[in-house]
């Protein structure tokens, strides 16, 4: 045995034997067999056999040298024997928990495993209650980092409480229960340089940390740090990385980083920080991430619960009218005219348009065909944005879809109304000389029609507040991207609106009135028939 005893075996010659006797005295009530390897690890210089032999000597003597010699020490609270005994009994000497391993993070960049082992307990100074401490942040934990790509291994040390507070992934394994944190051995499969950066971040506010050495995010490392910090549940760092990506995306995609490892949750959080104009400004020559942002923007257009600052309208109710072939939403259908004659008159005499849903039309097929045509999800987004949003023209007084900005109908020459002797047969009927289209002098519908088209005119609110109005923002985005948004004018989809005058007959209208118990009649449907 490496340390001697006095003749009565009651007083050890050194402090190590005193600690050993204290530990052994606490094991009297522990069921056999005792794990002497675990006991020997607590007292340097003693083998398991020596510990077992000394235990038998103390047991046979029937007296405790701790009780006889060290009561004054116990009275001062120097060594809490009771708490030490509890720890020994519940932790190191449990033969049923000899080796246990948890594998987590399979298939991820930073795989972590935790298994039972000793920590740096016996290498660090003991506090008054027998724990290895660093400040007030608990015992030091050792993290073994294995970098298979570079064939490197490195150990990192961090106080338990600090590690758990910053890397919440470890909270499950490093609880405040001494039985657990004394037995956990942490192994991380990760890039050594990235984990070194993470540990500097964890210790950024500690007393021994040099503020000048606080780690900084860079375009070349932010994606790896983002993925690792999200896996380790480092919430504050994840938020920092996401904000950094928003501000520096062009520089990030210019580095040889792998953007495909960003999961859907992180992608959504990053994309939501971009306005569609900011996303448009990202310089992404290899299209590593720009299309992903616009795909998320398209998804957001179809989310009825999402408050979209870029788009007052959403596409959740988008459908195609089987008559005029326009794509419309429920909000826009009563503002946008259909084919001539498809008019509703409400109980107050106002004109209300209606459309008929095409049940054969599918939104997924439409988006796929748009991508085949436009070759870019960015362009698909802007075309869809122009389809669901609308403005009101100050010239024709009609609401129009943003993708029909250039469809304001007009006649280059004013109508001519001949006298009573005219061959037209009525002074109330005129003609446009530019195209010979007939027109009523008193048209109750006041719907626009013309042989030519030009841009709609939008009147914006005056003053500084007008620049921030929804219509101002819509118009700005529309003008900036009109080449992508605006579709060509087609007479098939934009026939003459309102009542059609026939050369041989006056117009025939079928009016369907339905009784209404509250107002006497419901809205009437006026259908103009041309033969």
From TrEMBL:
Q: What CDD domains does the record point to?
A: BACK, SANT
Listed Pfam families: BTB_SANBR
Which residues does the UniProt record annotate as the domain SANT and BTB?
141-242
- InterPro entries of this UniProt entry? SANBR-like (IPR045902), SANBR_BTB (IPR021777), SANT/Myb (IPR001005), SKP1/BTB/POZ_sf (IPR011333)
On the tree of life, the source organism's domain of life is Eukaryota
Listed PANTHER family: SANT AND BTB DOMAIN REGULATOR OF CLASS SWITCH RECOMBINATION (PTHR20946)
- Quote the protein name from its UniProt record: SANT and BTB domain-containing protein
Which organism is the protein's source? Answer: Pelobates cultripes
For this protein's source organism, the top of the classification is:
Eukaryota, Metazoa, Chordata, Craniata, Vertebrata
């Amino acid at each position: 045995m490496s340390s001697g005893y006095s003749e009565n075996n009651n007083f050890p010659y050194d402090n190590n034997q005193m600690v050993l006797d204290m530990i052994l005295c606490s094991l009297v009530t522990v069921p056999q067999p005792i794990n002497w390897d675990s006991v020997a690890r607590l007292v340097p210089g003693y083998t398991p056999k020596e510990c077992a032999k000394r235990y038998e000597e103390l047991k046979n003597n029937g007296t405790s040298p701790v009780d006889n010699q060290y009561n004054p020490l116990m009275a001062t609270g120097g060594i809490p024997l009771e708490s030490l005994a509890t720890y020994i009994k519940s932790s190191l000497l449990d033969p049923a928990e000899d080796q246990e391993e948890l594998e987590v993070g399979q298939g991820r960049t930073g795989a972590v495993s935790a298994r039972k082992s000793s920590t740096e307990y016996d290498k660090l100074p003991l506090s008054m209650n027998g724990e290895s401490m660093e400040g007030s942040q608990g015992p030091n934990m050792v993290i073994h980092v294995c970098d298979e790509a570079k064939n490197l291994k490195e150990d990192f040390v961090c106080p338990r409480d600090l590690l758990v507070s910053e890397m919440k992934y470890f909270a499950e394994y490093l609880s405040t229960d001494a039985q657990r944190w004394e037995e956990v051995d942490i192994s991380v499969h990760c890039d050594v340089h990235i984990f070194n950066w993470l540990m500097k971040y964890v210790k950024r506010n500690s007393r021994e940390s040099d503020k000048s050495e606080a780690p900084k995010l860079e375009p070349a490392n932010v994606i790896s740090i983002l993925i690792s910090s999200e896996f380790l549940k480092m919430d504050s760092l994840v938020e920092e990385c996401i904000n950094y990506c928003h501000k520096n995306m062009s520089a990030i995609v210019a580095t040889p980083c792998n953007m495909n490892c960003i999961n859907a949750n992180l992608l959504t959080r990053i994309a939501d920080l971009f306005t569609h104009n900011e996303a448009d400004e990202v310089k992404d020559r290899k299209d590593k991430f720009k299309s992903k942002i616009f795909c998320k923007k398209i998804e957001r257009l179809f989310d009825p619960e999402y408050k979209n600052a870029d788009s007052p309208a959403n596409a959740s109710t988008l459908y195609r009218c089987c008559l005029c072939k326009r794509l419309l939403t429920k909000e826009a259908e009563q503002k946008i005219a259909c084919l001539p004659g498809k008019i509703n008159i409400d109980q107050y005499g106002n004109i209300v348009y209606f459309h008929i849903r095409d049940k054969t039309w599918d939104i997924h097929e439409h988006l796929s065909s748009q991508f085949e045509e436009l070759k870019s999800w960015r362009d698909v987004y802007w075309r869809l944005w122009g389809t669901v949003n609308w403005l009101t023209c100050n010239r024709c007084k009609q609401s129009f879809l943003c993708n029909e900005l250039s469809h304001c109908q007009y006649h280059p020459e004013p109508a001519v109304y001949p006298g009573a002797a005219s061959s037209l047969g009525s002074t109330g009927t005129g003609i446009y000389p530019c195209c010979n289209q007939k027109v009523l002098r008193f048209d109750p519908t006041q719907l626009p029609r013309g042989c030519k088209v030009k841009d709609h005119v939008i009147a914006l609110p005056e003053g500084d507040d007008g620049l921030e109005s929804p219509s101002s923002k819509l118009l700005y985005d529309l003008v900036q991207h009109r080449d992508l948004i605006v579709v060509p004018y087609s007479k098939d989809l934009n026939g003459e609106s309102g009542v059609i005058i026939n050369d041989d007959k006056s117009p025939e209208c079928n009016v369907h009135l339905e009784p209404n118990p509250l107002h006497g009649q419901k809205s009437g449907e006026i259908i103009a028939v041309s033969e």
